[in-house]
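re: that chain from earlier
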Amino acid sequence: MSRPGARVNLYQHPTIRARRGAAVAILLALLFAGGATAFMSSQIVNARFERDISRIVYNDNLELLQDLRAHANAAEDSLLALLESPTDTEPPGAIIISITDNKLWYRVHDSVVYETRVATGSGKVLEKGPGGSRWKFETPRGRLKVLAKEEDPAWVPPDWHFVEQAEKRGLRLTKLNRGESIDAGNGSVITVSGSDVVRRSADGNVTPLEAEDGREIVVNGQLIVPPFGTNQRRYKGVLGTHRLVLGNGYAIHGTNVPTSIGQSVSHGCVRLLNEDIAHLYSIVPVGTPVYIY
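^ sequence. v structure.
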């Protein structure tokens, strides 16, 4: 019992301390519940967003986007840019690609003017030995743009292509640099002359070598990686007849493997049948936004 006139520290009173502890516990529980609810809500919004975008494309129903903006508070999402009026320099259309469905739609204003099947990234991972480079072959999601258009494009294979080919065929990988030579036996060497990888024989004769997808330069159990800028690192026909460049190594292009269309088998680019990419090339202007989900 307190003495008359003594100051009482209410925060030390057992009842007060118990109530403070209960209040803190309730507050923490509310914060945790709020965080969990926000996380679950974001997951639900993402799922509903993807579902509704698919419905928009199939049903030509832009009202769903309006509803999604109002109820999901996702006004900043790139796909919702379809609702906005194009700028003076941006074309009125947009390409929409579904990775899950392997489908592509080209919309102009509120109409789908072209629709076709595509092939997209496999999602597979390639690693170059322990501690080496690592590549994951995914089609990027989000908002991109058609930066350029090319007819009869040539493919310049990245390093991962040669790593993949060497692993498939059980070969060693040897990188050829300009100014260097690789022994090819019988006094001949593989080297670079101008824009070609060549075989220089013992008598000085020089023969440019041929290389294409699946038929790379192989010497004494070594798969040779040609330098960039050589003709042996430019493959014709692999990308089909046309290409819409998206940047960072990605593109929408044709294919020399038509049976791959409709599957998730590419190294990240979006493949179309040659007749489909030729038509898309003819109607899609540079600057067209591309939405991949």
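The domain at 85-153+239-292 is CATH 2.40.440.10 (L,D-transpeptidase catalytic domain-like).
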